Amino acid sequence: MEMPEIPETPAKADKAGKSAKSAASGQAEKPAQPVQDQAPAQVETAIRPEQGQGQSADQKFLAAVRREIDWVDEEILSLLNKRARISKRVGRLKAGSGDPVFKPTREKKLLDRLTAMNPGPLPNEHLRAIYREIMSSSRSLQRPQKIVYLGPEGTFSHLAAMEYLGHSVEYLPKANFEAVFAAVSRGEAELGVIPLENSLEGSVGQSLDLFHRHDVFIQAELFCRIRHALLSKAMRMEDVSVVYSHPQPLAQCAQWLHANLPNAALIPLESTAAAARTVVDKPGAAAVGQSRLAEMHGLSVLASGIEDAPDNWTRFCIIAASRLADGQPDKTSILFTTPDKPGALAAVLATLAEAGINMSKLESRPLKSEKWKYVFFADLECDLYAEDNKKALALLRERCHTLRLLGSYPSGPKLDLNRE
Predict the structure, then answer these.
(1) Which of 110, 163, 192, 259 has the fewest Cβ atoms within 10 angstroms?
(2) CATH number for the domain including 400?
(3) What is d(CA 105, CA 330) in angstroms, rounded to the nearest whole number?
C-alpha cells in the first residue's frame, strides 16, 4: 500500500503557490523584509541558488535590491493603471456634465498636498515633475487635448507647455501669436500657451494686444527660468560672424554678445527655434536659444548662460475659449478703458484700494482703433468673481468706460526649463 503524500502546511503551500505564480508570470516577489534593512550577509539567504553562483556578498546584495525595486515598480504600475481606470470614469462623468478636462486649481491643490505629505528622500521638484506627467496622462484619457503654441518645435513656449502640461497631449505649432489666439478662440485647440511678460524686458506687447482682439480667457499661469546659449555648427566662437534669434533673447544677451562677438551682425527672427534651424546650414552663423535646441538640430553649444542677468524669468499664460470655474483661484486679469475725463484712472484704482484688492501689474497699450486712446491690462490678487468682491466689481463696471474680465486662475509655479 502506497504511503499518501503529506500535504504542506497552508502557509507553506500558499507561499509556494505564490512563488510559482510569480516565477511563471515573470513578476517579482514581494520581499519579506525591505532589503535596505538587511546586511549583505543576511541577503545571501534571499538569493535563489542560480542567482548566487559565483557572486560576492555585495553582488548578491545588489541582486536582492534590484528584485525589491522590480517588485516596487510592479506595484507602481498596478496603481497607475488603477488611477487611469478611475480617470476614464471621471472623463465619462465630465462629458455628461460639460465639465472641462483641464482643472488647474484642482491640480495645484493636489501637488501642494502631496509635497506637504512627502517624507523624502524623493525631492519635491521630482515629485511634482512625475505628477505633472501623471495628470497629463489622466487628462488625455478623459479627453484628448490639442495645445497650440508659437512654433516651430523647441521654442520657449513649446518647452514651457511640455514642462507644465506634460507630454500626453498633441502639441500644434503656429506661425505667430495671432494664429495661437485664433485657434483657441475658434475652438480648433482646447488650450494655447503664450508668453505674457519677462522679468528683464517687460511685457510682450503683442500678447496683450491680442487679448483685446480675441475672445479668450486666462486659465493658468507659469513662471519659467530662462537661460540662453550660443549654438552653432562652428567649433570656435572666432568663426561666428552673424547671430540669429528672437528680439528678446538678443536684447537679454546684448552685453555678452557685444563683449564676445563685437563684430557679429545680429539678425532678429520670429523665434529661437527658427534661429536654430536657420544656422544648421550656415557654418559661420550662430543662434541664441535654449541649449536643448542644440541636440534637436545637431548643433554645438559654444557658450552657456550668456544672458546678461542670471535671474531671468518669463511668465507664460494658458489661454482657453471659456472662463475657468474651478475652486478658489487667487488672481484675476482684466482689460479696461476709462472715460475721457480727469481722475478717471484714479477712480478705478481707488475702487480697488477701497476693496482691499492689490494690483500687481498695470500696463497701458494703444488702442489700434482710436488715436491716442489706451486700453489698460491689470493683474489683481483676488478672485474678482467671488461673492465678497461683487460690490467692487459693480463699481468697476460703473467707473470704467469698458471692462472685460480675462478670467481668474491660480498663481503659477516656478519651473526650470534648463534641465538637460
Answers:
(1) 259
(2) 3.30.70.260
(3) 9
